[in-house]
Amino acid sequence: MRYPLLLLTGLLAMACSNRERTNPLDPYNPVTNGAPTGFQAAANRDTATLTWDSIDVKGLEEYCIYRSVGGDSLRFRASVPDESNRFQDLNLMYDTTYTYAVQAITEWGESRLSPLDTLIPGPYNFWVADFNSGVWRISYDGAHVLEREYFNSPDAVVYQPGEGRVWVADYYDQAVYYMDVHFTGIEPIALTGRPIDMVADTIAGGVFILQIALDAIYQATPAGTTLTTNKIPVRLDPDASFTLDLQSSSLWLGTPTGSGDGVVYRLRPPAPGGRWELAASIPKPKKVAADPVAGGCWVATDSGVVRIDTDGHLTTYLTDHRVLDISLNPANGDCYYIGRSHHDGQWQTGRLYGQPEPQIILGADYSNLTGIQVLPGEGPAGFLVSQRSTGRILRFDREGDLIGWLGGFYELLDFSLE
Known about the structure:
Elements: H1 10-17, E1 40-44, E2 47-51, E3 60-69, E4 75-81, E5 86-89, E6 98-106, E7 109-110, E8 117-119, E9 126-130, E10 134-138, E11 145-149, E12 154-160, E13 165-170, E14 175-180, E15 187-190, E16 194-200, E17 207-212, E18 216-220, E19 226-231, E20 241-245, E21 250-258, E22 261-268, E23 275-281, E24 287-290, E25 297-301, E26 304-308, E27 314-317, E28 321-328, E29 335-341, E30 347-352, E31 359-362, E32 369-374, E33 383-387, E34 392-396, E35 402-406, E36 413-417
Antiparallel strand pairs: 1-2, 2-5, 3-4, 3-6, 6-7, 6-8, 9-10, 9-36, 10-11, 12-13, 13-14, 14-15, 16-17, 17-18, 18-19, 20-21, 21-22, 22-23, 24-25, 25-26, 26-27, 28-29, 29-30, 30-31, 32-33, 33-34, 34-35
């Protein structure tokens, strides 16, 4: 066996010079540069999966995998038989940077290394519903696509931990789809209206679905049944949203009502026969999110972030900002937000965590943001944001440093954690 990290030997170079440049391991091949192509590395939890294009060349013996951990130099990790183009690296450490490359071994010598690929494993994955490009399952570092499937017009996605399955709401199909994480066994459930938001029913199973025009909340179950939960006492706007509050056994619903106004209603219990209460009249609510620790909800509005306690008390933050989206840390209830100042137009991403003033994490360098999803964790936590101007999702760690990104997205995105 030959595992040294070397460039082509003189013998291999001489052999290549006598062959056509179509040889994929010829260092002068303009397409491959003499290295394996199509190399990708992606992590799902603590396992990295490495793949590359198969090489059709005489004398191929095996592949060598090289790995760097935490910024150290590349070292030999494993050999792979020549008939395979896949390798899994197990038991990786979370929040640690791993860099990989693959090298082909032939009877003449060693190829050049493939281009490097870097990943950071972690305990979660992201689900992204993109109204124009389908549904994506994204790695913890926000830099790799684990799965992707086209849907007509997906506007909401929910991962259900207990079942290990995924729900997708499709606006123009007037349906929700229920499937596993590999997009197999897709089961459609027809609706009578167009869905505009969806949340997991962690009490009874299934999902709650907000349907425009019908102005009603429906419940869908894995068995395929839909049950009307309750008629909503207000006409829904397309930007309406709702959230399930487990601490107070309530559903909170926010919707604009025209001319910059809006309302937040509360349904309790969240079941047929529950009673709707007007919780607050606030300017144009854009997103409601339940507080997972204290109960109540947070609301993103055109005039800041409003906190509604379970007793009806209102507290407003960032009154000089138009807040486009919020996300609550499931572990400690911290509210992460993206907004833009009414005074100078500057963008800001930050955290509200029980103090009068927010902790500003990202400033004007990251503008035109439209959505945010925070990860669970004590203290500051990592998060994912979407950026309209670049069509990217950007992944930041708990220090606010960019650790990964992906392109090819549009503006209307919905997130869920796996």
